[in-house]
Amino acid sequence: MFQGAAALSIDAKGRLAIPARHRGALAAAADGQMVLTAHPHRCLLLYPEPAWAPIREKVLAAPSLQQQSALIKRLLVGFAREETLDSAGRLMVAPELREFAGFDKQVWLVGQGDHFEIWSDAGWRKQQEAIFALGDQLLPPGLEDLAL
Amino acid sequence: MFQGAAALSIDAKGRLAIPARHRGALAAAADGQMVLTAHPHRCLLLYPEPAWAPIREKVLAAPSLQQQSALIKRLLVGFAREETLDSAGRLMVAPELREFAGFDKQVWLVGQGDHFEIWSDAGWRKQQEAIFALGDQLLPPGLEDLAL
DNA sequence: GAGGAAGTGGGGAAAAGTGGGGAGGGATGT
DNA sequence: ACATCCCTCCCCACTTTTCCCCACTTCCTC
What we know:
The structure is a homodimer. With about 150 residues, the first copy, chain A, is of the alpha+beta class. Chain A contains five helices and eight strands; from the N terminus they run E-E-H-E-E-H-H-E-E-H-E-E-H. The first copy, chain A, has helices at about 20-30, 50-60, 65-75, 95-100, 120-135; strands at about 5-10, 15, 35-40, 45-50, 80-85, 90, 105-110, 115-120. In chain A, strand 3 and strand 4 form a beta hairpin. The longest helix of chain A is centred in the last third of the chain and has 14 residues, at about 120-135. Chain A is globular, with a radius of gyration of 16 Å. The structure holds a DNA duplex (30 and 30 nucleotides).
């Protein structure tokens, strides 16, 4: 179970150090095999491979001659890369993915249950602003009864 | 299983270097025999020959006097070429196909499960813009329950 | 404050990407 | 039929990227 947001920096070689407290869980869930891909909201997704496989199968089953499902396939499967951590526990983020998500030096690793999202600093701030801007319209259908 | 997007360049002779991490899988799936053809979305398709054969048979079985199936046949089968990689792992892209897909120097090789798509730089960027433009209408019929 | 673990940066070897020369073979035209 | 041209493919050389390893700094723990 992954949760928690961490501000991390990507070094000049595109490497992202995963916080040590998550490494054990990643190794256990994925045997070290992870998949890094693009999210339509313009962040990246980091999945342990076993959690990613069923999603990939589902997406690939969609008809590729239909415009909209082709777009999803191209984004999710098209950008996906198998990755492992290097000996210092760092994840290599390919230049294509860095560009897609608009990564600068500073990024955020955000736990989301069975996977992580990785946001550029600017993108993450926008998410927060978007939440504040919702005001009373905060809760989406199906979650109206959420109490905190 | 092919996945991942790579920005590659086509040299002056029309050669495209396939990333080394895909070469093993291509050799295994196709014994080196590949088929390169045109996709109606104006990109190219790269199939291992064994995966292409059933698609070709299916397309060819369509009635050729019906306008719509004739168009598909002409595009998919008409543009298809058998290719192999050269000794440096490069794929030769015929001028006809380069022109069809509007290839300049920079192209994208995009894994799509059992095959690849190859996009011009401009075409690939348009795909991404199209996805962002979808907003909340992201998921096509049949994929509404996709969770990321 | 000392020791250890984690984050950070960079050097260097090896592999992969890139580009071009030139031989071989098939097509074209005289 | 022969010469020429063009296309293809193989090989070599150069550049860039990737990966592995080591060293330094910082922070937390004891």
